[in-house]
Amino acid sequence: MQREIKFRAWDTVNKRMILEPYIHFVDGESFYLDQRSRGGKMRSDLEIELMQFTGLLDKNGKEIYSGDIVENHPNVRWEVKWSEKKAQWRVGGGGCSDFALCSMGKVEIIGNIYENPELTKKD
Question: What is the reported pTM?
């Protein structure tokens, strides 16, 4: 089974989420045209943080991306990350390190590391 390859990006300058189809890839670099800037300033991959779609949905049918913060019990949450070592999507912390096992628990996206950094802080 193949999954759809999709991205979204965090604009580190304007502090906002950029969704496809506004993200473009040319010669291995990513960018988008920030039309809010006078003359349409091009934002390079030095000014955006890419997040890739995992191919999984949360319990509400929302697409899960890297950088999302998911929860399956009150106050038990993890950041979704790509593991180069294991070549798979993983979640860290909370005693659950295998994303497939966590996804069986019907996780819910509660935010992401850019718009909701307070959700990653330990109590």
Answer: 0.76
Q: Rounded CA gap, 91 and 65, in Å?
A: 11
pLDDT value at residue 95? 45
CATH 2.30.30.290 assigned to domain 7-120? The reply is yes
Q: Where are the domains of the chain?
A: 7-120
Q: How far apart are CA 52 and CA 82, in angstroms?
A: 9
d(CA 81, CA 51): 9
Band the pLDDT of 114: cuts 50, 70, 90: very high
